[in-house]
Every structure is written in structure tokens, then in C-alpha cells.
Amino acid sequence: xxxxxxxxxVYETARLEEVIGDFVQLKKSGSNFKGLSxxxxxxxxxxxxxxxxxxWKDFSSGKGGNVVAFLMEHEHFTYPxxxxxxxKKYNIEIEETxxxxxxxxxxxxxxxxxxxxxxxxxxxSETLKETELGKAIGLSYFKERGFTDDTIERFALGxxxxxxxxxxxxxxxxxxxxxxLEKTGLTIVKExxxxxxxxxxDRFKGRVMFPIQSMSGRVLGFGGxxxxxxxxxAKYLNSPESDIYHKSKVLYGIYHAKQAIAKEDNCYLxxxxxxxxxxxxxxxxxxxxxxxxxxxxxxxxxxxRLTKNITVLFDGDAAGLRASLRGIDLILEQGMNVKxxxxxxxxxxxxxxxxxxxxxxxxxxQDNSKDFIQFKASLLVKxxxxxxxxxxxxxxxxxxxxxxxxxxxxxxxxxxECASIMNISEAVLFNTLAQIGKKDSAEAAKKAPQExxxxxxxxxxxxxxxxxxxQYELERKLIELLLLYGNQKQKFEDLILKENESGxxxxxxEVMEAKVYEKIYLDLQEDEIELTHEQFKNIYYKxxxxxxxxxxFAINSxxxxxxxxxxxxxxxxLMEEEKYMLHDWERKDIYPKEKGAGVAQLVSExxxxxxxxxxxxxxxxLQQNTQNMEEDHRETLEEIMNYLQLNKLLNxxxxxxxx
Length: 659
Known about the structure:
Elements: H1 4-13, H2 16-21, E1 27-29, E2 32-35, E3 47-50, E4 55-58, E5 64-65, H3 67-74, H4 79-89, H5 101-106, H6 109-130, H7 132-144, H8 149-154, E6 158-160, H9 166-173, H10 178-183, E7 187-190, E8 199-202, E9 207-213, E10 219-226, E11 236-238, H11 254-264, E12 267-270, H12 273-282, E13 287-289, H13 297-304, E14 309-314, H14 321-324, H15 326-333, E15 337-342, H16 349-355, H17 358-368, E16 370-371, H18 372-384, H19 388-403, H20 408-422, H21 426-447, H22 470-485, E17 489-499, E18 505-515, H23 516-526, H24 534-549, H25 555-560, H26 564-575, H27 599-625, H28 634-653
Parallel strand pairs: 12-13, 12-14, 14-15
Antiparallel strand pairs: 1-2, 2-3, 3-4, 4-5, 6-9, 7-8, 9-10, 10-11, 15-16, 17-18
């Protein structure tokens, strides 16, 4: 159990924009930050972060909340895990008690798999550094690769002993369940055909270990490299797919590279684990690997959140380089900018960065990174040589890549560049581009439902008009006013119902000074109005209590004490208007009124509008009660007349004309 003082310290210290900035590339937008949604595949940024309010809202998915809510939503953390992650990030000491076997059993399935994976990473690291065999075999291999102790520690490298079940036995003795060892792929379980004891083997026996981490640093799986010349065994072995590890959605090194990628606004994409580690050790931190698998859209989206620029690094003697280019088209489809760099023959990112200084590596990457058009053209032209048929196929191949780019201006510029390189007219290339576009559209049309023929008369289905829930909107507005201005002192013009000399009822203004929360609370109490929406009611009473008890009331601290459902609702309320914010109007000599300029008027009008709505609803109920002609309705009719007169006065105050 984490103490309240620790949780409070985490909330006070954590900066939302810093935490989210580790996962999403954020750009300043007025007083807020904007970025591409990490929850949907969008092209235009609709993900907003408010540093002032310390809340975020994703308008494409509807999700929102505070810093903890983001980690729970994005990284699938539990609440305690999100607090622990933030505590670690901001060097806050946190008390943790050792988990008992009962507690381990109580953890949910996914969580149990994470626990097992984290234990395995620690076990393999300790085996590497603290056992004789680990030092002699595993550590000596890493040292031969040129890895320093600091690098080995940073990437949590390890070693699995070349014994059948050394790891499995130790994990079971520590209380970890066999079913989770099997589900994570760390242990291979084989049923004994004779009905005897189940056989258990370590999947990674005799291999050096590379933990594969999520963007937040959680251990998802492992890559293991064999050190013997066993031709029957694969050189590299990865964890199998599981509930926590999907290799098509993970990039090796993303945890260590994310901040550098955002800062440098570029990501180097390599193939293997050691390529990443050697680059990082040389001082180039914005590097990730696809871990030997073909590049996938999900992996590209991971990078796309942090930068629009990818530089793909290929070995000098990379076999099947042409096949590798298919991944380039996937990157282009995401609207990203692609450069390609190949190393001298016989070199790869690992060896090149190991044998050259930081300055030399950086200079080489800058001088030899080619635009994808130049690279593809030079590579395919070599293959085509003087064969006109192959040359035509090459041009079509390049134009096909250009067709993947969503931006029309970029497409046109690339067509011009291709025409220049391939010595062919732009008109022909634009024609080819149009043909590809038509073909793609035709294929899309086949998949889509058949549309009605032109001029065919069809009966339009009447769509139900969504009726606005007036009370819901007004209650929401009251919550917003309390959140934004609850502790502000304002001068309110109160309305007192009096009889004038003629005996008519009139509303006389009376100025009073009060805090916004006091005005709202007292007015609702006086009229015996209770909020009807359950979530708003919960938030309302918690807000009134918090504002009444704390002079230094802060939204961030207030939200820290709420459950995540209420936090999400509050963030939606506070961020709703942010997408309509006006920016840079002052440069055009237009000065829009500040939102906080008419708080007293806004509070009074909202309360008056709610009163009018409830009066109108009461009148409707009373009128229905007079339907029975046999009863005496004089008292009811008198009550209706009084309500109508009051409603008229209130609407006059609101400058509304009653029909």
C-alpha cells in the first residue's frame, strides 16, 4: 500500500507535459500543447495537454484525465503502478512491501505476466554479473562486443545458464506460477505421454539475453542469442506472442530512445539489438530496431508520435535490400519523411559505430543519408541498366511509392525530382500517378457498399433529431464554473422578489460580494435545487467540500483524490472549449474578450437559466394536472399564474423574449 503523503508528493512533482512528452511529440499551441493521438490513427492533431490545469484530452477518442489516467490508459498500468512509475521518474522515494505468495496469486493475469517478466530480467542480469558461468560466458561475450558496464546495466542485459531448467526451478521456488512462466514463453512445458511428471525447460537456455521493453520501460519479452555453433538452433530467439508481448507493436530500444527522438526530431531505424546498443553507447541515442522482423504500421505509429522523420540504416552488404524497401512505402503512407543510409561494404551499424568516433559517425550519417527517391532510383537504376522494360518498371515502382504519400504538395515535389533523376517528362509521371490513384479508388469502391445510381429517386430515412438535454448542459456548466473560478471573489447582482407600490411583483437588484462556490451553493440551496446527473452530483459535493475547507484549493490535488471515472469527466469538462480557442488574434489587432472577464455575469445567468428551465418544467406538470375538468383547479391555476409571472421576470432579466 502506498502512503497518501507519497501519492500527494507524486502529484505535486509530476509535470503532465513532461510525462506525456515521453510518449507523444507535443507542440506549443497557445497556452496548451497539441499532438497526434496515441490512441487513434489520426493525421491532424486533436490530442491536447493543459500544463496550467495539468489535464489532457484526446478529442479523437474521447479519453482524458490527469497524469495517472494517461499512464493507466496508454500503458495499461494499475493505479499503484502509475504512481510507482512517476515516483521513479522524479526520484521520489516510495515504500514497497515484499509481495507474499498470496498477493502474487491475487494479481490479475496480465499483471502476473509482467511480474514474471520483471523477475526474469533481474534473474538473468544477476546470473550474468554474479555467477562464475555468467561472467565467463555471457559477460565475456558482451565485453568482446565492446559493451561497457554502464551499457550492460542500462539495457539490463543478462545470461540464461546452459542448463535445462535452472531459471524455471528458481522462479517456482520464489513463488511464481508455472502457468505464467509458460504464458510469457520463458518456460516450455511438455506433458509426459506416459502420464508421469510434466517436463519443464528454459526456453532461452545457454543464451545471452536482451530484455524488450515498452515505451514506459516495462519488460514485455526477451530476445536471446545463442553463443554456440549449434546449426539446429536459431541464432536469435524471441519470446512468443503473448497477452503482453506483440512483436509487431514493439520497437527495441524505444524506452531509451523516446526523449532523444523527440529532441532531435529524427529516428534512426536499424535491424538488430546490438546495432541499437552500439549506437547508443557511441552517443547517438535516437535509435530503435525492428528486431529482425518486417516493419509494421503499428511500429511506424510508435515513432510517428515522437517525430515525422525516419532515417532507415541498412548494412553495406544487406541481402534482399530491394525487399526491405517495402517498409519504406508503409512509412510514406503514414505521412512521414524518409531518408535511407547504407554503410560501406562489410559494415553494419554495430561495427561502424564501434570502429569510428562519435563525430565521424554523425558526419557519415549526415553526408550519406539520401532522400528515399534518390536512394530508390539509384538502387533500381543499377538493376535496370540499359534494359528499357526494367527501366519502365523502375519508374512505375518509384511513382507507386510516391502515390502512398498523403500530402499532395509533397507528391508533386517528388514527381518533379523523379522526373529529373530518371530523365522522363513530368506529364507522363503525373499521368501514371493518376492511373495508380484511379486503380486504388476503384479497388476501394469494390469493397465499399454500392452507392445509388445518379438521379435515382430514393426515400430518405428520417433521422431522429437528437434533443438537447438542457438540464444536463446547465449542470455541466455549473461544474465547469466551480472548477475554474470556485475560489474567486466576485460582485454579484442578486435579484430580490418584491411588491412595488402598484402591488405588482418585481425583481429588485441587490449587489453582494461572495466567492463563486458560495454563490452557486447558496442559490441552489435556497431554491432547493439538486443536481440530477449522478456524476455531476458526486463532483459537485466533493467540490463544495474541497473549496470550503481549503483556501489554496488546486484542481490537480483535488483530482488526485478522485476515482479515474470522475477524473475523466472533469478533464472533458475543462478541455471542451480548448479546441475552439482563438490564437494570435492580437497580431491582427483583434482582441477577443477573456474567458474570465465576465465570471459574475456568467454564474448569475447560468443559475437564472436553470431556474427558468425548472419553472417551465413545473408549469408543464401543473398544466397536465388540470386536464381533468371535473375537479376544482383554482389553486393550481393560481400557482401556474404565479410561476408564469416569475418566469417572465427572470427571462426579462436574461433579455429573452417569451413567445
